[in-house]
Amino acid sequence: xxxxxxxxxxxxxxxxxxxxxxxGCYFNIFQTARTVGAGKVTLTVGSGVLNLAAPxxxxxxxxxxxxxxxxxxxxxxxxxxxxxxxxxxxxxxFLGVVGDLKIGLVQDPESLSFAIGVGGGYQPGLLGWGVxxxxxxxxxxxxLPIFFVYRPMCLLDADPLTIIHHLGGGLHLDLSDHARILxxxxxxxxVLGGGICLDIIF
Length: 202
What we know:
10 strands; 202 residues; single chain; mainly beta; Lipocalin
């Protein structure tokens, strides 16, 4: 038990340090409506990809990301996410840091999960600081493991004040009781992208 607690603490410290030291684009959502549970911690590591170019051209951008989620209660999570942007012609750059609070309103592992959230943070790709709300819906049916997310974001540093819409969805595939893969396709203000990540629950 002590060794497990030390490992969890070390993982939390390492990911938080990485979040602030990594050197925009946008974050993939990499979350579903499922909450992690009281006292549990989830580490998420993944990458998004999108093509920032005119039709017919290619300028693939990769966005490696890390996230840590802590269960404050069975249906309440708090999390922080960060990452970097890697393009073919530019130096790697800081993607930003965002935090959020998620509240699970329905958590039925046999049918569906539904949650809402609020958050905010700093993203160079969003021109600076912003706040966001989120609505999450999961199908937990074994033959249909899909999720959907809607996230409106208000850009506080934009003039005039701007709202950006972020829609995402995909598959949540359980590997075990402590690990799963999320495969996501999303649209961020009309820019299409996707990503894949691994969730590990401690």
